[in-house]
Specification:
The protein is of the alpha/beta class. The protein has nine helices and seven strands; from the N terminus they run H-H-E-H-E-H-E-H-E-E-H-E-H-E-H-H. It has two domains: 132 residues, Glycogen Phosphorylase B (Rossmann fold, 3-Layer(aba) Sandwich), CATH 3.40.50; 99 residues, Glycogen Phosphorylase B (Rossmann fold).
Length: 250
């Protein structure tokens, strides 16, 4: 069984060696469709329905990550009509064997693919193609921002995306909480202006500093998060295309 999984990984990585990413944004998603089509082709997943959502998961398969949650997500995604891509390394023998069994079960499936290692190039391909990500944990989701809209307000974080998310959230009937520090004077002034604009608003609140206690309160209370970046979303799992799903479609 293990040898079959290893052979499958080799074939996938060889197919992805020439993978070319297409750029896209919240305003123009064509590149996203191209990335998804290429990923499906290279992983051997069905492309019969180009609207079928793709769920990605990139993680270490260790107990604290909640491997039972990952297994549930695989089967739940299939049940709900989605496709699932898992890229995960595992230093724990019994968990490795368990996921090798699942990988073998789905090795020829048209909607599920498990690659049991970590590979930098493949991770970027999955980020580029997935519609949404799961960030498994039985404690607290991993990532430098811990997947909140808790960030440093600097150009590489895509401050225009954050501004778009604020107004889009309001337009869609939601509430928005931003906790962010800013070392760039002109960006600080811009967000101070937005904070002043919404200072008495019942649905928007901007706090332009970093506060550890408040960050945990926001994690505990929020229904969803954005992870802003114009390069690669921050965090160990980087959860890239969650950003576009939340801004563009929620």
């Amino acid at each position: 069984m293990k040898s079959r999984v290893v052979r499958q990984k080799g074939e996938i990585l060889q197919n992805l060696a020439e993978f070319q990413f297409s750029c896209y944004s919240a305003n123009d998603m064509q590149g996203k469709a191209e990335n998804k089509a290429a990923m499906r082709r290279n992983l051997g997943l069905s492309s019969a329905d180009d609207q079928r959502p793709v769920v990605g998961c990139i993680t270490r398969l260790v107990p604290q990550k909640g491997v039972h949650l990952i297994k549930h997500a695989i089967y739940r995604t299939l049940e709900m009509g989605g496709q699932f891509e898992l890229l995960g390394s595992c230093p724990v023998p019994h968990i490795q064997r368990e996921f090798e069994g699942i990988a073998n079960q789905f090795q020829n499936h048209e909607h599920i693919r498990l690659i049991l290692k970590y590979d930098e190039s493949l991770s970027h391909a999955i980020y580029a193609a997935s519609d949404m990500f799961i960030i498994p944990s039985i404690f607290e989701p991993c990532g430098l921002t811990q997947v909140g809209c808790i960030t440093r307000l600097v150009p590489q974080k895509g401050v225009h995306l954050i501004k778009h998310a604020i107004y889009r959230t309001l337009e869609m009937g939601g509430q928005f909480e931003l906790l962010g520090s800013c070392p760039v004077p002109h960006i600080q002034r811009e967000f101070e202006g937005i904070a002043n604009q919404f200072q008495n608003h019942e649905h928007i609140r901007l706090i332009l500093k970093y506060d550890e206690s408040l960050s945990h309160a926001i994690y505990a209370a929020s229904d969803m998060f954005i992870i802003p970046s114009i390069f690669e979303p921050c965090g160990l799992t980087q959860v890239s295309h969650l950003l576009h799903m939340l801004i563009h479609e929620f």
